[in-house]
Automatic annotation (TrEMBL):
Its cofactor is Mg(2+). HAMAP family: Phe_tRNA_synth_alpha1. Binds 2 magnesium ions per tetramer. This is Phenylalanine--tRNA ligase alpha subunit. It comes from Candidatus Scalindua rubra. The lineage of its organism: Bacteria, Pseudomonadati, Planctomycetota, Candidatus Brocadiia, Candidatus Brocadiales.
């Protein structure tokens, strides 16, 4: 009987060593130490053994039962631990090179706007925003462009409703950021120093220098005693900060309904250094902004005291500035989302 028990012991050991799953371990358990298992069958035969063997065999059988139960516990633990370790193939390999994701960056026009914001904020200008879908009143009337003014015709395309529908204050895509001057002055009293960046829309024929949507930055300063020399000072300071100390600037007399006197400001063409190229239309100069002293009619539209306050305003074309700065000869490149172009900035 002793021999039989020690044989059993070896059998259980080798069965457990072969077991690959918890199910197989369970089969071993039922077979050997289950209620009707081999060990229990042996224990049942003990009363029929010679009396002197009974207690030794009983003891051995019980010890074996406990031992098997311990081995089963250990085997189960081992299987569970092995199952939770992934296959060698799936294992994370720290030595593999990572997947490269290129960094994105801001669009060159956004970069230009941010740079200009920074320059003006050093001069104490706040940043304001206005809606791109605008009422005629803000785009025209309040800016001293009455309904019959010829300059309205240049912007007569981007109305949101048919001309015949609706009243006389219709919605349109704004043609200029000058609208924000009116919105800000209606809300705040002087002193005002602000710039307003944003998109504008024009029914222009698209070519190397014109797009139907582009960006402007409006500027406005209103206070007691603001003069044209303040305007010249601020714009010269801006041009030198943005283009460098050697940039040349010229003010040409011009006309805008909302400023009097008005000027157009040109920058010496940095692409051809003034020799003449397609960007400057072979003139050596590029117009980058319009400016002037705020017309008293505009102040009246916003209920400012025209005897007390004066102010200057300007509107600059962001794409034009970026083209000059980076030597880009076609405005359409900024709008095409071609990564070969954009990734250079
Ligand atoms: N709004 C004008 C345009 O889009 C630019 C401009 C000219 C803005 C003179 C101004 C200004 O504030 O004073 O052509």
């Amino acid at each position: 009987m002793k021999e039989k028990l020690s044989k059993l012991k070896n059998q259980v050991k080798s069965n457990l060593a072969k077991a690959k799953s918890l199910d197989e371990v369970e089969q071993v358990r039922t077979k050997y130490i289950g209620r009707k298992g081999v060990i229990n069958e042996i224990i049942k035969t003990i009363p029929s053994l010679p009396p002197e063997q009974r207690s030794t065999i009983g003891k051995l059988a019980n010890e074996l039962k406990q031992e098997i139960s311990r081995w089963i516990g250990e085997t189960r633990k081992k299987i569970v631990a092995e199952e939770s370790v992934p296959d060698a193939k799936e294992t994370f390999d720290l030595s593999l090179p990572g997947k490269h994701k290129p960094y994105g960056h801001e669009h060159p026009i956004t970069q230009t706007i941010n740079e200009i914001k920074e320059i003006f904020s050093k001069l104490g200008f706040d940043v304001e925003y206005g809606p791109e879908v605008e009422l005629e009143y803000y785009n025209f009337d309040a800016l001293n462009i009455p309904a019959d003014h010829p300059s309205r015709e240049d912007f007569d395309t981007f109305y949101l409703l048919a001309r015949s529908a609706g009243g006389d204050n219709q919605l349109l895509l704004r043609s200029q950021t000058s609208t924000v001057q009116i919105r800000v002055m209606k809300e705040k009293k002087p002193p005002i120093r602000m710039i307003a960046p944003g998109k504008v829309f024009r029914p222009d024929t698209v070519d190397a220098r014109h797009a139907s949507m582009f960006h402007q930055i409006e500027g406005l300063m209103v206070d007691e005693g603001v003069s044209f020399s303040d305007l010249k000072y601020v714009l010269t300071l801006f041009a030198k900060s943005y283009f460098g100390q050697n940039i040349k600037m010229r003010f040409r007399p011009s006309f805008f309904p909302f400023t009097e006197p008005s000027a157009e400001v040109d920058i010496s063409c940095s692409i051809c250094k003034g020799k003449g190229c397609s960007v400057c239309a072979y003139s050596g100069w590029v117009e980058v902004l319009g400016a002037g002293m705020v017309d008293p009619n505009v102040f009246e539209a916003v209920d400012y005291d025209t005897e007390k306050y004066t102010g200057f305003a300007f509107g600059l074309g962001v794409e034009r500035l970026a083209m000059l700065r980076y030597g880009v000869d076609d405005i359409r490149l900024f709008l095409e989302n071609d990564m070969r172009f954009l990734s250079q900035f």
